[in-house]
């Protein structure tokens, strides 16, 4: 292991087929260091009438004992005891690399679920094996004779390893198993990857093999994987809608000369796009495609893909694909005819919508969005959320001191590099880890050559799951980059007692959910001295010396009040919600509105300095939410780009129960409106200590009074108040009630 002087890196958050063929890495199961990330799950799509269902509540959740219901069959084709099994939600999956229970997004996770725990099966009695799973379970016959259409719905979660020869199949028979129609539920998701959000809610129209038939059976078959799991819950058979056009998949392809389209990129400098690509196109232009399925029973007339581009939330571009007709259960992929080229700094949101002349009945599955930010200085393929981290330890020949993970960048114009930028993952301090950022260039037949690097850093525990932006060591020449293909890398060293070669000692953030083209993520194995192309998009970027981007940006605050509306704690049209700041950057408040009536209140505030943290909270009728409950008692956010959107739940979605009607009915203010003099009347069901507080819309306390052991209390408040809205709060130690007071 190398030993160098620790340097302090300054903050450098400035928004910011190649000549040599790398071999493709052979993966093995990875013990990912996962990050707790709040993920918004799409609600289950609207359905026609459900005529058959099971939540897999087959066993005793306390003991784990279970028996398949009559008519169900569970089979291990290999006869090794590796069956689909029912699992209690309180019993986590074992084995080498899996520790989770049922997926949190299942509708009924607490009554059990079905799973193939492949990790567990290949880790019996402390012995690791590599046996492929080959198991299925099948429903009893289901009568669909009266149904003109049949849709299968189920929630799924999976992670698979360790080759590409595995199948996750939904199969349907109508003749007792003589013939099976089958549908792919894996969707091409590669080894080690957790299922993407869009594939969690399965919805398959099987009308052509099930509708009108008396004995339909559904089977789920797992074949091939050796590790991880496939779990299912909440299986339903429904009647289909007449009009249900589905946007199954979508792509935004960044154009790069003779390389063609190189997938979606999240951040790219304005100075590095817009030039002729040499093959009749423009570097940095985007082409858009969408794959659509007619899941309904009616033909979709004039169906087409629409693409809208917003820059900092304002529309700047809108185009349609050529409209065609799409017959029931058919698929079609359409491309927007003209490319889009961004010509200014900003966050560009690509909104995809599948439309037709028919009146759509399930609009929730017609849309999707992707982001692309034009910066002044940052090349970064990933988004800013790490779903896990990787240091090469899960790859054959990896996990040695000196290994590198890297991300490739095509640089089309001369520029000067200032920093290298990465999101570190888990750090094992017992291995005294160190790291360095490096930049390599493809020199064709000469291979990859290191161009420039940073100093080597002693990793500290507080660097885990943080962004690190380090200055490169300039020499007056190597920092000036010429056009070509570069790999931005993180080199890692560690140490284990008795191991002269050392280990990685740490990991780098892994972006699993960005849509991208392969051949842009790399592993360098120090033990073999070679580069491998891998399918893990590590979070590493390049910062160049360009400037000119905006220094301030707007922030859109969104707060979901649906839980409180449902619990009768917030009354739309009567109660008021706002957001208030607590730092010199912004003090607020800003009133929030819900013009579309979806229970999510929003407001956009402009002028936040990029890179400076803000603290804020949401309030209802002037009362701050009780979130968070530990640490810094305010919400925190740092505007990191030219347009920012915050999605929150009021009080983190926690409600306090239906309000005690005894206090609600007794809390009155009169007259209201008033000129500034009004009476407060509070009647409680038991003797109570009350605190009565009057605040203005800024949150400033104008009046406070405390009374003890009362059940019927009245007092008159008379103040020289300016015209406007005020909030009167009564707190009895158990609950807080608020009324608006208007002074005119």
Structural description of this entry:
- The protein has 744 residues and is mainly β.
- It folds into 5 domains: 50-238, Galactose-binding domain-like (Jelly Rolls); 245-379, Sandwich (Immunoglobulin-like), CATH 2.60.40.10; 385-544, Jelly Rolls, CATH 2.60.120; 552-653, Immunoglobulin-like, CATH 2.60.40.10; 661-743, Immunoglobulin-like (Sandwich), CATH 2.60.40.3080.
- Helices cover 3% and strands 43% of the residues.
- Strand 33 and strand 34 (530-533) form a beta hairpin.
- Structural category: mainly beta
Number of helices: 4
- Shape by Cα distribution: globular
Backbone CA Rg: 29 Å
* CATH architecture tag of the largest domain: Sandwich
What characterizes the major β-sheet? 8 strands, mixed
Uncertain runs are: 3-11, 13-21, 31-46, 657-664
For this structure, what is the CATH class of the largest domain? Answer: Mainly Beta
Provide the CATH superfamily of the largest domain.
Answer: Galactose-binding domain-like
Number of extended strands: 49
Strand content: 35-45%
Arithmetic mean of pLDDT? 87
Number of domains: 5
Helix content: under 10%
CATH topology of the largest domain: Jelly Rolls
Alpha-carbon distance between the two ends? 75 Å
